[in-house]
Amino acid sequence: MFTRMKALFNKGQDQGFTLIELLIVILIVGILAAVATPLYLGYVKDAKTAEAKAVAGSLWSSVQAQAISNCGVVTAVSSGYPKAGLSSTGGTNPLRWQATTGGDMTVDCTTGAYTPDETVFTISGIAGATDVNFVKVRMIYSAAGLPPSALSCSTDGGATWANC
Length: 164
What we know:
Layout: H1 2-9, H2 19-69, E1 75-76, H3 81-84, E2 97-101, E3 104-107, E4 114-115, E5 118-125, E6 136-141, E7 149-154, E8 162-163
Antiparallel strand pairs: 1-3, 2-5, 3-4, 5-6, 6-7, 7-8
């Protein structure tokens, strides 16, 4: 009698998943991956741009400090490289970012005004670092601007620029 009851109650209770159940799970995982991938790539691009902005911020601070200490004297942007942690050629260590100067800077001793109004420097991902070679950040100073100094970013190698 026990065998009959066991056979009666175990009927229709197969072990495992059906093919339909497995296909539904694979479909759900595929949809989640399709949605998450573009978001992830956007976050990666933002992180690389933030890295370049950090290098630009440290260089801008050191250039300002150098120009203020040389009040009234023309100061080369490259004189701020050592304080910003850059090499004498403007590269980071390890070499992922390269600074190129746009001009020299002078601070007026009485008014505190900076001159000239132009792109002060540009931070570019180097060609050898393929994960950042498309990112560029430039520091623009304009006495008439609010604020007078602003970062401009490009994530397409410099073809288009936007405030960042």
